[in-house]
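> example.struct
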């Protein structure tokens, strides 16, 4: 499984920071983070609220453009070790320059340069999706959306919406999504994770997204499932994340296979992998165990993901060729 070439569409950059990387930065900055690791050095938390505390503490040490460039290199190394050949990562101007456009340009330049250097040496190809934070409210989503629109292009390829799904309705964020769409960006939105089918429907109908982050709770409304299948809306499913945060007790109870059986386009990602003690290889192994999926099933998932990637056509062709070359 590890060697199989993979495409990952749903990965938060800060959430992909390995514990050792965060400990290194904390040591340099003389910040005490001892309360967030277990005895083996992994992130340790008890339940969702505690997860948020640990996540916030860990990511608080990642500050400057230089920190972000190092983070990009570290994350790409991890992805490479998992056979990931192409990934899209959520990046947030709120964390990178406080929503200020000129500061954002500095962060972006540092991240992009690091990513392009890794790709030039044969490592995974990375693209960025700008992600306003939902629980900061619709007004504060405007600055990151403008940052995204101003820097839209070959590297910043999309707009998403992360953060607490319980806050507001999708339509409240329509300004940010319209702004991004007009700038040529592709659209995705976290929905159907902490809230049910209405949240997914709102993202599709009111924001016009072509992908949904998670979206798994669409399964609670089969008419919506049919709509997703008919329209070819792609779900960025992160099974390990859903189980780690208690959305489902185990993989057998997770709806990914049922959604796929109903012809919804599903893909597999890790969300915040070290926080959920997972990797892409582990996700594949567990899906194979739970549902009997084989190499041919995973190859098909990766083709769906490559087709749904927000990159330009040339990059997509290259990814598809590499996936095909591995198909036996
Ligand atoms: Zn996410």
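> example.seq
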């Amino acid at each position: 499984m590890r060697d199989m070439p993979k495409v990952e569409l749903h990965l938060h950059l800060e959430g992909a920071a390995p514990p050792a990387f965060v400990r290194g930065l904390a040591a340099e900055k003389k910040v005490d983070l001892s309360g967030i690791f277990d005895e083996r050095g992994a992130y340790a938390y008890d339940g969702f609220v505690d997860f948020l505390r640990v996540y916030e503490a860990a990511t608080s040490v990642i500050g400057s453009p230089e920190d972000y460039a190092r983070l990009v290199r570290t994350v790409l190394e991890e992805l490479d070790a998992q056979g990931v050949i192409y990934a899209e990562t959520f990046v947030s101007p709120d964390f990178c320059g406080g929503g200020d456009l000129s500061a954002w340009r500095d962060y972006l330049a540092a991240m992009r340069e690091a990513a392009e250097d890794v790709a030039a040496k044969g490592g995974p190809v990375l693209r960025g999706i700008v992600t306003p934070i939902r629980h900061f409210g619709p007004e504060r989503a405007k600055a990151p959306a403008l940052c995204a629109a101003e820097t839209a292009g070959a590297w910043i390829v999309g707009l998403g919406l992360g953060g607490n799904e319980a806050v507001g309705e999708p339509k409240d964020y329509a300004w940010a999504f319209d702004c991004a769409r007009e700038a040529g960006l592709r659209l995705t939105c976290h929905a159907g994770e902490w809230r049910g089918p209405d949240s997914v429907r709102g993202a599709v109908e009111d924001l016009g997204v072509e992908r949904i982050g998670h979206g798994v709770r669409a399964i609670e409304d089969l008419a919506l499932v049919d709509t997703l299948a008919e329209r070819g809306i792609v779900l960025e499913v992160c099974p390990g994340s859903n189980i780690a945060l208690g959305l489902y007790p185990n993989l057998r109870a997770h709806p990914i296979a049922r959604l796929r059986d109903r012809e919804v386009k599903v893909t597999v990602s890790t969300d915040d992998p070290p926080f959920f003690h997972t990797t892409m290889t582990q996700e594949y192994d567990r899906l194979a165990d739970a549902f009997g999926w084989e190499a041919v099933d995973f190859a098909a998932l990766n083709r769906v993901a490559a087709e749904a990637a927000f990159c330009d056509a040339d990059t997509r062709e290259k990814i598809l060729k590499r996936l095909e070359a591995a198909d036996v």
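> remarks
The chain has two domains: 6-17+66-326, 19-61.
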